[in-house]
Hints:
By secondary structure, this protein is an all-alpha fold.
Amino acid sequence: MTEIPEHLRKRAAEARKKAAEKGGGGDAAPAADAGATPAADAPASAAASRIPAHLLERSKAAKARAGDGGGGGGGAATATATRAAAAAAATGVATAAPPVATGPGGHTQRLLTVVKSGSIQDVKAKPQDKVHTWPHLLVVEFVASLAITAFLLIFSIFVNAPLLALANVNQTPNPSKAPWYFLGLQELLTMFHPMVAGVTIPGIGLFALILAPYTDRNPSQKPEDRKFAIGLFTLFLMFWAVLVLIGSFFRGPGFNFIFPWNDGLFFDL
C-alpha cells in the first residue's frame, strides 16, 4: 500500500469545507471547528470522503514513523525514489521497441500463407503436337511440286506421247471410250441419270472427303488408330478404281459388257 500525499489530503479537506458552506450558514461553524481540530473530526471526515478509513489510518501511522525516525528516514525515502526513477528510465530505454518499417500505403501488417509451388509457377514450355503451316508444310509441298515438275519435263523430253492417227469425222470409233481417268464417270452414265451420275454421286463423295477432318478428330498419326479415316478414303478410291477397270477392260462394241478373255481387249491409252 502507498501513503496518501499531504496535498491530496488538503484538497479533500478544502472540498469538504466548501461543501459544508454550500449546505447552509449554520454549518459554517462546525466546519471551522473541524479544520481547527482534525483529530476529533477524522472519523466523520473519513466517512464523508471517498478515501477509505483504513488508508487514512495507514497514512497517519506512516507519518508518525517518519516523525520518529527524523531526517535520516526522509533522506532514505528520497534516495529510494531516485533509484526507482533511474531504474524506470533505464528499463524504458532498454525495452523500447525497435522502429517498425512500413510498406506501401503505410501498412505495418503482412499476411503470410502457405501455397503449393505449382499454383504460382507458370510453366511456359508446354509440349505441343502442332506446328505452323508455314514453313513446316508449305516448304515441303513447294519442294515436292518442283521435283515432280522437273521429273515430268525430263520424262517428256525422252519419251513421246502415244498419239493415234488423225480422227475421221465420217467414222465414229466403236466402242467410243473417254480417257481412262474419265471412264469412271462414263460408267456411271450407263447406270444412272446424267444428273445423278455427273453431279450427285461425285458431289457426295467430295463432300464426304471435305468433312473427313471434322468427323474424325483423332490426333494420332498411327494408321492402326485412324481406322475410320483410312477406311473412308480407301472406299472412295476403290469405288472409282472399280468403275475405271470396268470401263477399260469389260466394255466392248456399243459400250456393252464383255469378258476380255472371250471377246478381246477394247482399250487404248
